[in-house]
Amino acid sequence: xxxxxxxxxxxxxxxxxxxxxxxxxxxxxxxxxxxxxxxxxxxxxxxxxxxxxxxxxxxxxxxxxxxxxxxxxxxxxxxxxxxxxxxxxxxxxxxxxxxxxxxxxxxxxxxxxx
Length: 114
Prior knowledge:
This protein is mainly beta. The protein has a single domain (3-106), classed as YEATS domain (Immunoglobulin-like). Helix content is 4%, strand content 45%. The chain has one helix and nine strands. It has one helix at 37-40; strands at residues 3-7, 15-18, 26-33, 43-49, 58-61, 70-74, 79-86, 91-97, 110-112. A hairpin with an 8-residue loop joins β4 and β5. The protein is elongated. The termini are far apart.
């Protein structure tokens, strides 16, 4: 099973981030199942386990149309544990590492959201 992730951008391609006060920037990321439709059709639910520092580290997604995409804001890189529940009741466990790279900030690559 393959999983993907991407930085979430606005309509102008700027990476979205949140920042409280002078704290670290938290960038908007999305994780998803990166498989063809015939594999997605066999999946009933995907559970993502984010880093324990998240307020809600366990996320469930049953939206096949979105490729079971879950998005969140983070400042760090970490391993994501995944449980895939198939339509036949079978479960599989996986893990992948978020290892994203950020482009330089020239004032045009990022957009602060509230």
